[in-house]
Amino acid sequence: MIRETNNGIPTDSEVILGILNNSESVLKRLYIAYFPMIFQLIINNNGNEDDAKDIYQEAIIVLYNKVKTGDFELSSKLKTYIYSVCRRLWLKRLSQMNRYGGDIRDFEEYLPVDDETEKNNERDIQFNKMGNALSLLGEPCKTIIEDFYINNRSMKEICDDFGYTNADNAKTQKYKCLQRLKKLFFQQK
Amino acid sequence: MSDNQLLAEIDRYLNGEMTKDERARFEILRNENADINSKVAEHKHFTGLIKQYGERLELERRLDAIHSEIDVHTLKEELMIHPSWIIQMWRNHHSKISVAASIAIFAVLCTLFFTGYLSNREVNYVKLKGEVDQIKQSTKELKTRVNGLNPQRKGGDGQGKFRGTGFALSSNGFVVTDYHVINGADSVYVQGTDGKSYRTKVIYTEPQTDIAVLEINDPSFKTLGAIPYSFRKAETDIGENVFTIGYPRDAMVLGPGFLTASTGYQGDSTAYQVSIPVDFGNSGGPLLDSKGNIIGIINAKQTHMEGAAFAVKSGYLLKAIQDIPDSLKGNLNLNYKNVLAGMNRVQQIKKLQNYVFMVKVYNQ
After folding, report:
1. How do B230-231 and B293-301 pair as beta strands?
2. Which residues of B touch A43 (CB under 8 A)?
3. ipTM
4. pLDDT reported for residue B102
């Protein structure tokens, strides 16, 4: 069921090194290698294409973060790990949607992976809050914050973009924005 | 130091933009002031979260880019486990199928309603009644059949009403029938074609030749009139064109045929074998030749054999009549004058029918 890609399936250690080195090609090969397996799982268990995409990407992100933080130990085949995470995530999603009939059609072996998905879930909640807070923040605050804290641009560049005559004005503006963002972030339940 | 300035310092500290001296001074400040220290930690955490959020968005964007290169549709065709065509058809067309079924049911109900099938109960009722009548009739027929010809069944059940045939011996009310017809009877009635029924008394029986002589003793009985047929003493030859009339059912029935053997069942010399369609109820009927002479009395038929009926020879009837004691015989005078000879069958039967009776038997 695994489709051959141009570069073939990356080996498990290749994937880990690739993620650590931010290799775009390894990520792509990884993604393409295992997507059909997960797609098959989801569409044959009451899901559609979009569900499959969501679940698979969530699993890839779990793997990615785990590798990045350095606490990923390869105790099984990467394929089995991905399948297990996706299976776990999909079961959870199904029961949330009340579509879980108590039975799931399996295509691969799987492992218990509750911890991984729980941790990821907490982080997702934080990110959701951040996303909401940023969208509520409005312009130009949103762009200033994103440019400075996410894109690592210097205050001088930001000053030029926004046409602030004085870098101090820009700084003042930035901290006002940051305070509002914090407020919006912590207000959310 | 204002909040903004402090935050600016923290940013610089965290971004590693401070000089060595500044950094050392800031660290001392941080260690001395717990408030500033917690602010640093909080700011670090929050800006870290913003950064991670940004990274996550970036990663998702990259994954989406990769995903867009996958031909999901083709993959779906490959990987979908297809359910059987009937389930698939139901899934794809269930709304249409439901509508079609509803319309069909509605149409059937409308048709039934407008054709009066749903409201007109009388039709069904009449039909049912007819069936009951049919069953009644068939039960009655069955009873008659069972008891008419078969001597063994005769005495069986107590309350039955049985039927046979008999014919007149003389104008003053002597009637002959089969012994097995009246065997075990409490009362015997004879009924003519005119529907009049007369009570009779059994005056003589001869079980070995299956003959019984009855006398009408009903007060309403007057006379039968001159008997049109005579009784043949001699035996009749094989091949003679013969017929009988009797009451296998409520109406008189003609049974035409031929004399086919000069002995009866299992070589019984007292009887003829005749090829005549007879049924239960024919017992006791007259067997006549083409000239209108009585040559026998129908009494049995062979089962599982087509057209094999038996009739007691008339010679034994005459002998039985002679054997009747004088005290009972009264004025039984047999007729020897045959007016039927030379008539055709239709005329013969017209003359005959008033002298052939349905014998009705009641017992308890």
Report:
1. parallel
2. 76, 79-80
3. 0.80
4. 95
